[in-house]
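Question: what's this shape?

___
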Amino acid sequence: MIPKSIIEEWMFSTVRIITTDALDREWVATGFIFGYPVEEGKYIPFLVTNRHVIENQMSKELHFIAEKDGEPDLENTLTLPVPILESHWYFHPNSKVDVAIMLFGRVISHVKEQDKSIFFRFVNGTLIPKKSDYEDIDAMEDIFFIGYPDGLYDKKNNTPIIRKGSTATHPNLDFDGEPKYLIDATVFGGSSGSPVFIVDNNIHWGKVTRKPQDSRILFVGIVAKNKRLPQIVQLESVENETDAKSVENENTSEVPVIHENFHLGVVFKPHTIMETIETAAEKWKFKKILEVMEKRKEKEKEE
């Protein structure tokens, strides 16, 4: 299967991340490959996920689809273990912004050393909404995101899960004063790090013009977590012996808490990824990116 549509290409931009914590518990999350535009048709690829996915984990693995004769070898994966990951990640300078990036070139170099190849595509950084795009984004828009909810994926073809939802707060506003917004979608653990998109394959109705507009393809952020409502459950005494055995702490002061899924997800805005890359570039003295930043500053001064 060679991806033909842009959505099919994004299927091959995601990376399944497996981590292990200090208690030897295994966690699954999503990462994706992002192309930072440096000039017309040229991009620097980065691996993007959430800070909480990487931070304080004892070991990590990246799972990719293998490549064969220029096509995805769907039934075969390539796993890259922890040695190439430690200390190579960079977090957004604001610890409240749940974004982490790593130069994807490190992954490519490691794969080449093994004389192997992976099939991948990337999310194009030029799809981040411009000011005019944001002016046309309404309070409620249909969105979709791609990843590995609860660790689920197509085990035969090693492809991710695509899910739909809608914006629940206005993407133009900073929810709770932070660069994020909420989506109305069932976000499970494992979806952390999933890229979020608005795609209108057909003509959409312009919010400002109130006229039919061309189709939109926008990258609108990265899933960080879900919103859950804690509910306290009070244990009650029971009469039959079978039920009594199942309530071991009936006479104790312990009260169980159940977290009910609100079916709301938290999405950090796409410019937070650009900010993370550019602050990393300043630290790493990454010449290509620094040149892009300088040109943008000059253009802003002229405007």
User: Anything to note?
Assistant: The chain has one domain: 6-295. Residues 6-295 form a domain with the Thrombin, subunit H fold (CATH 2.40.10.120). Residues 287-302 form the longest helix (16 residues).
